[in-house]
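Why should sequence recovery work at all? Because a backbone constrains its sequence more than one might expect. Tight turns favour small or flexible residues, buried strands favour hydrophobic ones, and helices have their own preferences. The token representation captures these environments compactly. In the example below, the structure is given first.
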């Protein structure tokens, strides 16, 4: 864990419980919390259009988001965005 201590853990838990933050914000906080440099924990960004356009972000492997089509992922070490869809996917 890149940051530790009771106060840091309380802050992370607060963000994860709050609906004030978007799924992307919560996923990025959780990714940083889980990043130990050994276990990959990419943030996946996906879209769906079955009931109007919808988007969602989640940590790979922690959630079954099968109804979404992956369009990008954010890797924990570099934090860079990697597009996974074609040029028309965004």
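From this structural description, the recovered sequence reads:
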């Amino acid at each position: 864990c890149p940051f530790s201590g009771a106060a840091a853990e309380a802050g992370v838990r607060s963000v994860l419980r709050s609906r004030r933050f978007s799924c992307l914000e919560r996923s990025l906080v959780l990714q940083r919390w889980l990043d130990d440099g050994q276990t990959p924990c990419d943030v996946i960004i996906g879209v769906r259009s079955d009931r109007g356009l919808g988007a969602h972000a989640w940590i790979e492997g922690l959630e079954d988001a099968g109804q979404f089509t992956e369009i990008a992922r954010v890797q924990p070490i570099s934090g860079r965005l990697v597009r996974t869809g074609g040029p028309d996917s965004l």
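A few observations help interpret the result. The radius of gyration is 14 Å.
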